[in-house]
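Lab notebook, bench 4. Still working through the backlog of constructs that have no structural model yet. Next entry is a single chain of 425 residues. Request: give me the structure tokens for it.
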Amino acid sequence: MSISDSSSYGEEENEEYERFHHLRLSLIGRRLAEGASSRRQTTSRRHIDRERVECNRRLMRDYFDPNPVYNARIFRRRYRMQPRLFHRIMGDIVRFDPSFALRRDSFGQLSLSPEQKLTGAMRMLAYGSPADQLDEYVRMGESTLMEVFRKFCNNIINMYGATYLRAPTPADLRILLRKASSRGFPGMIGSIDCMHWEWRNCPSGWAGQYTGHMHRPTIILEAMASYNTWIWHAFFGTPGSNNDINVLGMSPVFDCIVNGSAPHVRFEVNGHAYDQCYYLADGIYPSWSTLVKTFSNPRSNKEALFAQHQEAHRKDVERAFGILQTRWAIVRGPARAWDVVTLNNIMLSCIILHNMIIEDEQVDSDDEMDDDLDYEVLAQPEPINRHQSTLIDYLARNNRLRSSTTHHALRNDLVEHLWNLHGNI
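Model written out:
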């Protein structure tokens, strides 16, 4: 074979190799494109026409038309509130957050109505239903309803928190003190206790911190409730491994007293004057001047009578917990959220709605009660600064708050007071 024949043969071999290489690359590219296309087809979201406009018409016929299918009594049972309160909340939330208003999307179609959004969020609170379960009724996708639910809770807190999570004002204190005196406990403004909410989706790394005597992860709510189950104080988020004393140590419930910003109250029990209101508490709480506990082992008829009345009126906060969990089933069952912030917003929004319902429905005769009781409530906040005299006053107020001597003296006076009222019955 000549040199020219050998070179032509090599060129043909190279051309054949290049054709084979290009063919191989094209096949690989085609297969990759087909694979990507199939993956896009399997992961794409399918649009579901939920007929949300027809759903809104049905919802309006059921509850919101002038002559609805379901009357106000059924509305109250399913929404946990009267229609007038629902419409008040809906109007406020639409003005506060325009995303709840009725709008049109980019195709000109009507969006979800405010009634649909509030119905979905309130049904989740009232029945503890998962978002996917409510899709069949309110015609909202799971992710959409969860977004609406989170916004609803945040808006309730931002709109109404300052009003319905407030501490008692001087006007509130006058009503509470008059009612407490009529029940045999002058100076009492409520009862305090803790409630555990099970956390089903607690991260495994936190489970030990949040697991206490209930042997499963829980989060604690500390609350103070008055005679009508209005919750005046709510402190939520403490891990369930703590007891009531630990929660009290972290709670801001008595900060206004030690800071000098609490309204000054003067009242008499059994001929002795006192200037600090108090809460009824169970036996685990410390013997402070602002807490009145029962006798675990009464040694006389007087102590037995006091224990009977104290334990009966201390149930106000237990009743508040029971109503809260019955009205809003989401806080009765295990919590499904993954973070404490979301759980805090859910709990606080339930408490705010609970207080709003009490205000809306309660027919109270407290304003008609005789106002001849000797109570003086003066709002005189005292600012705190770095002056030595102010710090000394701060420490003095803290010592008075934790005074066991005042605690026992007040309890003994209440024992005598109740015996004088009911001992001969």
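Notes after review: The chain has two domains: 52-163, 170-422. The chain has 16 helices and eight strands. Flag for follow-up if needed.
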